[in-house]
Amino acid sequence: MLVIAHRGNHTEHNENTLDAFEAAVKLDVDGIETDVRISSDDYLVLIHDRIISGKEVCALTRKEIEYEIGYQVPTLDEALECFPGVIWNVEIKTWRGLELIIQVLEKYQSNRTILVTSFRHDVIAICASSLKVDCGLLAAHRPLSLNSLLVDSIGVARINHIVWDYDILDSSLLKESAAAGYNNFVYGIETKSEFEYCKGIDVGGVITDSPFLIDYK
Q: Which residues, in sequence order, are bridge partners of residue 135?
């Protein structure tokens, strides 16, 4: 089972920074998850929150974002360039900047291992048709059926991952998903017992704020 460091290793570093990514790589994790948004001056900044200091990220320049949060914010291009040897789980937070995101991912898709995910399943459909990378649907609710979750993506070859919130895990649904050819990832696990549980129910990878769980692989 793969261990993906959620926003890098941010126990001692600011999340989604090059320092956090480097710290995660030093732990020998399999991959890094990061969040991408676009600034008002068209930088693809790696930042999770939509609002900082009461202001929308998309309305701020990169320098203004850095001023508000108090540290340097890397771009998607910079992160992919600096750390070639890990899986990159790039979560697209919004449709804004999608064309630029696709352009950057095209640059690296032949020499990086990339998984693009989003709660915006329409965005994932566009990425799957535009890129040669794996794509995944983020799921924060337990659907009535697997088909109801996948109704718009069945047959789209590059949509081959489902990334589930740990709180909604259903082992029978995961088995059905795996049998249909999807790779199940889980986000939100924090403890050894949760990690061990995931190992036993057809989970291919976990995205965690506790990357030290790699010790239990």
A: 116, 159
Sign of CA dihedral 198, 194, 141, 99: negative
Which residue from 35, 24, 49 is spatially nearest to 92, judged by alpha carbons? Answer: 35
Rounded to whole angstroms, the Cα distance separating 25 from 155 reads 35
Instruction: Judge contact between 97 and 108, C-beta under 8 A.
Output: no
**Helix axes of 121-130 and 98-108: crossing angle, nearest 10 degrees:** 40
Map tokens 């109801």 to a residue: 148
Beta 87-92 vs 159-165: how paired, if at all? unpaired
Amino acid identity for residue 22 in this structure: E
Asked if 90 and 21 touch (Cβ cutoff 8 Å), the reply is no
116: which strand partners? 90, 135
Residues comprising the chain, all counted: 217
**Cα separation, 76 vs 201, whole angstroms:** 33
pLDDT digit string, tens, across residues 113-171: 999 999 999 999 999 999 999 999 999 999 999 999 998 887 788 999 999 999 999 99
Distance CA 91, CA 105 (A): 12
Q: What is the pTM of this model?
A: 0.96
CA–CA distance from 22 to each of 14, 27, 215 (Å)?
12, 9, 18
| pLDDT tens track for 55-86 | 999 999 999 999 999 999 999 999 999 999 99
DSSP helix/strand/coil, 14: coil
Q: Which residues contact 52 (CB under 8 A, 6 or more apart)?
A: 60, 65, 68, 69
